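Fold it.
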Amino acid sequence: MEITPNFQVGQIVSLEHDDSKLYAEVIQVVISRQLCWVRPLLLLVKSSEPPIINDLREASDLLWPINLFRPALDTEVIDMLSHVLAKEPKSELDSPAKQLLHHFIHKVWQAYKQGCTG
């Protein structure tokens, strides 16, 4: 029996793949479809030193399988969010950040599909 995470609206969740981690705010949980509607906040890329924090507050919302997310711990996001939230969001998401998000989502989806069929 699979356990469904009990996320709350406004909660920060994370989605991790390889050396990157997406942090997003829960907008709605669609229990009947096992989906989570989230609003991206930032993408942390740990492959460089120091890690790169990409502001994604102006990115499109995502509707993803709920079981791919985990609750983000306050201790892991407070510092990063304070850096991002201290700045005004850009009126338009810059192209490199948009490409990073698209690439990250594509990699996660490919891994998820392989896990479902393999």
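The chain has one domain: 11-115.
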